[in-house]
Amino acid sequence: MLQHHGHDVVVAGAGIAGLAATAALVAAGRDTVCLEARDRIGGRLLSEPASPGALDLGATWCWDGERRVADLAARLGIDTFEQHLAGDTLVQDATGVRRLPGNLLDAPARRFAPGAGALARALAAELPADVVRLDSPVTAIHRRATGGLEVRTPDLVLHAEHVVVAVPPALALAHIDFGPELPPELVRLARTTPVWMGAVAKVVARYPAAFWREVGLAGAAASRTGPLQELHDMSGPDGRPAALFGFAPARAVGPGFEQAVTAQLAQLFGPAAAEPDSLHIQDWSGERWTAPPAVHHLADYSLFGHPLYQRPALDGRLHWASTETADQYAGHIEGALAAAERAVHAVLALKTHALESG
């Protein structure tokens, strides 16, 4: 028999947006639970431990002016460091590899010393026990005849005044039954909004040392022949752990992909790059709880931050809070935090208004 529970707010998704929204709502005294489909928190903040730090398989950077993520890292005691920029750029095309002076790809940015995933872990560690529930995919969100919303998982029925959907809209529409109640224009928008990183594979190659720096290379490269189309230095502070990473279209992943990657790394950076200590391939399109089945066909990034995402749906009770819905910094960690902040403000404003009206 399904268990029934009542809460002020249910948050769907324990990525950085969902965790930030949950933390803010709990701090404001709202009875809040965060439901996560995976068996881990963090969503697209995924870091692989690599002494003395970590290798980011998802989100990596933050930039100047992104005050929310800077403030969060400082509050949580997570050290950041500057992205390595010094050195020349490599360009690869059908004619071979050329070396161009200076770093033409990277902009000044900061990284998280223990990996971006540490943001999610530290936020979750501050929450009371049982607020975040893993292995709990949301399967349905409907209006209740008596008011509020009903949220279903395979094991639970939860009643809530508000629901914060902190997963990509296209993913939500693929996995959650909203019934016929969402406006048709919102359904069309959500189904066609791309998923940031959803059609991308990120490849991280770890080495004993950042040997490319010794010959004046930045680790930055652009390729028209692939499989990696864009590469960057992912080494930690002082070059440890030493690593390069690159992006490939997720459709390129398959038999022979790993061998093609190491061959390309050797062509770009020389024989020392041919045999990394470890090679991590994170195909985000294959992540059921990141990418919907149609992810490869979603390409209109102008839909990010659409005005419809700024307005709560279902009588003002359903709030969007993934980075794709942010009207600023969409696709960044900062965008996820901005979307969460907007959703929290809307929940608290409506709750306060309801209390005052009562």
TrEMBL record:
Residues 16-87, 111-348 form the Amine oxidase domain. GO terms for molecular function: oxidoreductase activity. Belongs to the flavin monoamine oxidase family. This is FAD-dependent oxidoreductase. The lineage of its organism: Bacteria, Bacillati, Actinomycetota, Actinomycetes, Kitasatosporales.
